[in-house]
Design a protein that fits this description.
The chain is mainly alpha-helical. The protein is 60% helix and 3% strand. It is built from 10 helices and 2 strands. The protein starts with 23 loop residues before the first helix and ends in a 21-residue tail after the last helix.
């Protein structure tokens, strides 16, 4: 991963000064409160939703609700701010960064789903109704959007940003990426390569946040990838979705294709994620001044 993720004269979070030991407990308390609220939300919201929703909907909307509540409470208590202050403010730079993220995610998804076809090692087969189900497509697209936003708020939101400010970029991106991958251990047909790839995705999203200073770039990458895979007829993180009535089948070994888990479980995705690191480094992303990455006043560290 490139060490210099910002460009021009933008602030560079990876070079933030380390904080004095007296402030360590304060940062741990903030992260702990956020984690506690998030865990409670991830427990309570699915229980409330399961009687009226399936697993897919419950997982996506439950994550979104828990992340929104945890971020709102934490940023209000400790920063006297609002939810938008975690990088969700909207501006011209925001929609441009979102667009670059969507483009990267969609193109990456097309590569892993259609490369077998273009190489002659894949074929398209009809599934389900055999045609596009527009209501289902729109519904699933909205759910995937909420899921992507929810996961970004949860893993790259308040706690992530506070840790970057406290212990530095690399020391935050690596463990949070590992945690992001481990959170997918219970997915259907999961493999260790799939988990490793998801960890790499988590690190990519963290790097994307540092590059842009907002959550819109990682949200775009996340949603673009999650959306184009099922639209192209591939499994998404172990989930099979019949959206277009067509499925892309690869003759490649599961080591490369991902097998029943979908492309995210294959080595091709490993290569694509590596390419996306280069993409976000080179893309003309507009850095936005991230509120939670600003150095705190010196008097805030007094005992």
């Amino acid at each position: 991963m490139p060490s210099d993720l910002s460009r021009g004269d933008s602030p560079r979070p990876e070079k933030l000064d380390s904080k004095p030991a007296s402030s360590s407990f304060g940062y741990l308390a903030r992260v702990g409160v956020f984690a506690l609220i998030a865990i409670l939300g991830m427990t309570i919201f699915p229980i409330l939703m399961m009687p009226v929703a399936d697993y897919f909907l419950t997982a996506a909307l439950g994550t979104f609700a828990a992340a929104a509540v945890a971020n709102t409470v934490a940023v209000r208590i400790y920063e006297r701010g609002q939810l938008v202050d975690i990088g969700l403010g909207w501006s011209t730079a925001s929609w441009r960064n979102l667009g670059w993220g969507l483009a990267g995610g969609v193109v990456a998804g097309l590569v892993v789903t259609w490369l077998p076809l273009l190489s002659g090692e894949g074929h398209i087969v009809p599934v389900g109704a055999g045609h596009i189900q527009w209501r289902t497509l729109i519904f699933v697209s909205v759910v995937l959007l909420f899921g992507a936003v929810g996961e970004e708020m949860l893993f790259r939101g308040y706690a992530f940003q506070v840790l970057v400010r406290s212990i530095g970029a690399f020391a935050t991106i690596l463990p949070m990426g590992v945690l992001f991958g481990l959170a997918h251990l219970n997915n259907q047909n999961v493999t260790w390569l799939a988990v490793a790839n998801t960890m790499a995705w988590g690190m990519l999203f963290g790097a994307a946040f540092l590059k842009s200073g907002d959550l819109w770039l990682p949200i775009g990458l996340h949603f673009g990838w999650n959306w184009i895979l099922p639209v192209s007829g591939a499994n998404l993180s172990g989930f099979t979705m019949d959206l277009t009535g067509r499925s892309v089948r690869s003759n490649w070994s599961p080591l490369w294709s991902g097998g029943a888990y979908g492309p995210e479980g294959g080595l091709l995705t490993s290569l694509v994620v590596a390419a996306l690191f280069y993409y976000i480094w080179k893309a003309p992303i507009e850095y936005q001044d991230a509120l939670l990455l600003r150095p705190e006043p010196e008097d805030s560290h007094a005992d």
